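Lab channel / #folding
Pinned by the channel admin:
"Please post every new chain as: sequence first, then the structure tokens as a reply. Keep commentary short and put observations after the output so the thread stays searchable."

First post following the new format, from NK:
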Amino acid sequence: MTLRVGITRALPEAERTAARVRVRGAEPIVAPLLTIVPRSFDRSIEGVQALAFTSANGVRAFPFSREAADLPVFAVGDATADAARAAGFVHVHAAGGDVQALAALLTSALKPGAGRVLHISGADIAGDLVDALRGVGIDAERRVAYSAIAVTALPDAYYGPLDVVLFHSARAAALFTKLGAGQASRLQAACLSEQVAQAAGKAAWKRVIVAPAPREEALLDASLEA
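Reply from TO:
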């Protein structure tokens, strides 16, 4: 039987996830719980020694320029790094898929006193990168480039034929539960990390799957081949 997989993440990432789900022989059902809305923010890079991105949405929100192209870019994971390269950045480094790994990578690669790390993020964040960097003496600043606006009711797709629901963020998992959890008792929740699983775990799922690493490929391996 073909697995039917609900994709909760926002567009356009949801479509990229859907393509990967199809390659694995499952049927993607794109039903985002969040919508990305750009915000105005200070785009100056004066005094900045590196850019940090915790999502591809942040990369898309940041205006690429010849001046910025020379800055090293540190991305939370492979997908965000790919987005940075596609935008034109040359010196791109990928961490292990979460904020803690990104902070460790930045700490090992940069020197205190050499300039600020500019973290381009959404309004809601899973971890405080700026605080982690300041804790080791690296100046850092966060600028909010977009908001992820939540739906006010679960899309109808989550009440229809489904087998697995993918959660890439704790916020989406918590929102799913807050909005009634659909038919969770009949479904498997596939979660990108333990933090995401904790948020999803407030609903009574048939099964909760946690990716062995905070990367989408690991998530799909764990949920579509289980």
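NK: The radius of gyration is 18 Å.
TO: also worth noting, The mean pLDDT is 96.
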